[in-house]
Each structure stands twice: as C-alpha cells, then as structure tokens.
Protein: Thioredoxin-like fold domain-containing protein
Organism: Achromobacter veterisilvae
Amino acid sequence: MEPKRPSIPMQVQAFRRRHRRPRWSSALAVALVALLLIWLASRLPGESSTQSSAPESAAQVAGPPWQMGSPEGRFTLTLYADLECPFCRDYFPELKQWVGANTDVALQWHHQPLAAHEPAASAEARLAECAAEVGGQAAFWRAIEWVYAHTRSDGQGLPDGLSYPDLTPAIEHCLASKRPDAVIRAQAEEATKGGVTATPSIRLHDRQTGQAILLQGPIEGDSLLSAMDMLSADDPAATPATEMPADVVGDMPR
C-alpha cells in the first residue's frame, strides 16, 4: 500500500493559482526591454552625428551656376561666356589662374550663347551642363576646358567626328533630355536682363557690401583688383558705376 501524500491546504492552492505567472508574460517583458534598449540607442550621440552629417552631404550636391575658387570668399566673379567665342577661349585660362591665386574670390559661370555662334554654342553648353549633372563641378570645368581646347570657334563647333572622351551613358541620357536647355536658357535670359551685351563680360559682386559692377571685355588681374578695391571702399562716393568697359577699368588707380 502506497504511503499517502500529504494534502496541500486549499488556501495555499488558491494562492498559487492566483500568483502563477504565465510563461508568455516573461517573453513579452524581455521583448519590451529589448525594444527600449534599441530606442535608447537611437537617441544617443550616434543619431546626432548622423543628422549633423546631412548638411555636409547636401552641400556637396551643387548645381548651376557652377563655381570654382573660394565659395566663402568675399567676391564673386560671374563670367558670362560663349563656348564658341574666341575671346572667351583665350581669356578663360588667364582668369582661372587669377582666381586660383586669390583666395577671396569665387568664379561663377553663366552661359551666354550668341546668336551668331549657334547652334554650336548651345550644343557645347549642353555638353558641359550634362557632364556636370553626372560628375559635379569638377566635371563641368573639365568639359569647359576640353571644349575650348578643341573647338574651331566662331560658330564652327567641334571638328567632325570628335567625341567627348568622358562621354558616358548617363551623360548621353542627359543630352537626350531638355534639362540642359532649361538651364542655358535661364542663364542667357538673366544675362540679357542684367545688361550683358557681349562676351566675355564679368559681374564683380562684393558679398560684404552688396555692391556690384559689370565689366565688359577681358579684364586683367590688376584691373580686377582695382575694381575690388573700389567696391570695398568705405566712402560711398567712391562706389563705381554699375557698368564699365574694360579699357576704363584698366585705367583705374589702385
């Protein structure tokens, strides 16, 4: 005969039933703790560093008008140029070198295709814009230099059969669209409204004072420095006229 097991009082049995924790509640608690840790991790400095890097990435995504030189410089030189203009072709390397030697200046390009140089001028401008759309500012300036190095100028365009060496399917896709046309047209219209009647022309803008001057014709470095001195003069009476031809600017004292 088996020994009789001691009986558990009814009160104790009822207590155990009331306070028994279901197994699923433990798993739920673990999951909630894990989610809480994940949420806390997302609020730690790692998140703020990701957010702080966003403006830097946005700054890298530039667009027309394309620039070279110091983006934080006091002065902006806007070059209104035609890629079929022989004077622009000869002047561009000189201006680029001068901007590179002056850390307070940024050079900004504006397309101004002349009617006498069409359709070659706009076709070359489209190539530069599409190169920039795919490769950014550096690609834009490479395309400008390549066109000037190979064009026959005066509306004759590039030699027959010559292809851009950096041509890619992405650039070809851009060339097949109307996107570059919109940029070129907008810049040309802005130049005309601003009084630009010839290429090359330069608008020198002092970002600190807000003063600007339009200079017509190829402007040598010393003359540009003279114009910069005039724009930054403390005496309002010394502020130059809004437009001056290259020969007048060249005679300005420094």
User: Anything to note?
Assistant: Strands lie at 67-69, 75-81, 105-111, 201-206, 212-216, 243-245. The chain has a mean pLDDT of 80. The CA atoms of residues 128 and 142 lie 8 Å apart.
